[in-house]
Amino acid sequence: MKVIEINKLNKIYNESEVKVHAVNNVTFDIEEGEFTAIVGPSGSGKTTLLNMIGGLDIPTSGEVMVGGSLMSSLKGADLTDFRLHNIGFVFQAYNLIPVLSAKENTEFVMRLQGKSKKVCDARTKELLKAVGLGERMNARPAKLSGGQQQRVAVARALASKPKFVLADEPTANLDSKSTETLLDIMEKLNREENITFIFSTHDARVVKKARRVITLEDGKILSDVRKNGGE
Known about the structure:
This protein is of the alpha/beta class. The protein has 7 helices and 10 strands. The strands form 2 sheets. Strands 6-7-8-3-9-10 form a 6-stranded mixed β-sheet, sandwiched between helices. A hairpin with a 2-residue loop joins strand 1 (2-15) and strand 2 (18-31). The chain is globular, with a radius of gyration of 17 Å.
């Protein structure tokens, strides 16, 4: 079943009177439960594409449908509510709340969803332990390394078991062991909860785990390959 449909998507930025075509007439679908990596050199449009799928950026033209909803038609509170209950984000910049601990950051989305303290506590402890931060749950971001903050950001994205996880370079600041742990957790959730994952990445370890690889270059799809041989 198609859960994300992208049709003739374009994003043009005007920089110093020069138009930059960050995403150029891109069309593809994502099936429910896919584990997809979007790859390409810096400036190829990976992050812009991911942001438009998540409703964080507005297309110049074209359409993005996520879970049957046209993202450009969702405004204000409706868009916020849709993202809250459907999409987990992992940002390159972490976007952790400085005054909250690792535990409080991880459970933040679940709290907004109205989950009980018992549910939040159990899920948060499970995830932070899994990513190797069981002993640092009460530490605030300033007391954590970049890699540790990234692990908190991933735990937060996964905590509410969203339908979709959009991860922008989720392993950029992680060592090999942490990367393998996180990818294993994501694969488990993908398999057991049928969560759909889309990564933008340069990391060969992520690409190896992905079951579909979409390659972008200059904002266009260069190739779209499923690991079972389909294209």
